[in-house]
Amino acid sequence: MHFILGKACYPGITLYVNSTNSIFSTFLVTGIPGLEAVHIWMSVPFCAMFFTTLVGNVTIMTVIWREQTLHVPMYFFLAMLAASDLGLSFFTFPTMLRIFWLDARELTFSACFTQMFFIHTFQDFESAVILAMAFDRYVAIACPLHYSSILTNSVIVKIGLAIVVRTLAIQMPLPILLRRLCFCHSNVLSHSYCLHPDIIKLSCSNTRINSIFGLFVLLSTMGLDFLLILFSYILILKTVLSIVSYGGRLKALNTCISHLCAVILFFTPMLCLSILHRFGPKLSSYIYVTMANMHFLIPPVMNPIVYVVKTKQIRNKILKLFIKKGPGESQVTFIT
C-alpha cells in the first residue's frame, strides 16, 4: 500500500483516509463534449458507420478468401488491413454506442486496460500492414518481373508473423505497467474509449516509466513505420520518373492510389492531433475528441470503400457474390 498526499492508495483504487464515501474503482468514458443532449441522434450516423465497417471489411476478407485469383501478396495484405480495421472497430464503436444509447459511461479498470490494449494493438498492427503494403507496391513497380519470386507465400507468412510478434511484444507491457499506478486525480477520461496517454494523466503516482515507454512504443511503431513508408514512396517516385512513357508512369502511379488513400486516412489525423497537443494553441476539447475519433473511426469505414472503388478486381469479385448468371441465360439475376 502506498501513501500519497494523505491518501491510502492501492493499485487501481483510491481512498481518502478521512472519508468513507470517496472511493472509485472505475473509469468514466466521455461522449462528445457539449453535445450530450443530442447523443441519441448522433448514434444514427455512428451506427451507419459501424454497419458499413462490418459489411465492407467482412466482404473484402470473404472475397479474398474465396477467390483463388486474388491469392497474391497485394490482396493478402489487403485482407490483413481489413482484419485490423475490424478489430479496431469492435473495440471503439460499441463503447461509443453504449454512451449514446444508454449513457453507460462506467468501465472497470480491468475492462478499460483490456480495451486500451486491443485498441493500441490493432492500431499498431494496421500501421505495420500499411508499411508492408508500401513495400509490396515498391516491389511491384521497381521489380515487376521478379515480383512473384520476391514476395512468395512463405515471405508473406513471415511478414505477417513478424507484424504480430512485434505488435504483441511491444504492447503487452502497457497494461502491466498501468496496474502499478494509483489513480486519484480523477476517473473521467477525455474520450469515448480508453487510451494510454489519457489514462496516465489521471494517475497520482510517478508515471515517468509509463510516459517514456509509451513514447518509445509510439516512435518505434507508427513513427518508424511512417518514415519507412515515406522512404518507400521516394523510391517508388524515383522508379516512376525513370519510366520513359507518360502512359507507363501514369499506370504505375495508379496502382498506388488506394494505398496512398489508406496512408492519408490513417496517419493524417494522428499527426494533426500530435501537433495540436504539443505545438498548437489551447483549443476546445471538442476539437481533440473529434480528431481522435477521425483517427480511430474513419479508416475502418473508408478503407474498404476506397479499395472497392479503385480496385477493379475486388469490385468484380464482389459483384460475383451478389450476382449470378442463370444457366443458358444472357442476363443476370440478383440473388435474394
UniProtKB/TrEMBL annotation:
SUPFAM superfamilies: Family A G protein-coupled receptor-like. Keywords: Cell membrane, G-protein coupled receptor, Membrane, Olfaction, Receptor, Sensory transduction, Transducer, Transmembrane, Transmembrane helix. InterPro entries: GPCR_Rhodpsn, GPCR_Rhodpsn_7TM, Olfact_rcpt, OR51/52/56-like. One of its GO terms (cellular component) is plasma membrane. The chain crosses the membrane at residues 40-65, 72-93, 113-135, 147-169, 257-280, 286-309. It is a multi-pass membrane protein. GO terms for molecular function: G protein-coupled receptor activity; olfactory receptor activity. It comes from the Eukaryota. Residues 56-307 form the G-protein coupled receptors family 1 profile domain. It is found in: Cell membrane; Membrane. One of its GO terms (biological process) is cellular response to lipid. Putative odorant or sperm cell receptor. Belongs to the G-protein coupled receptor 1 family. This is Olfactory receptor. It comes from Pteropus vampyrus (Large flying fox).
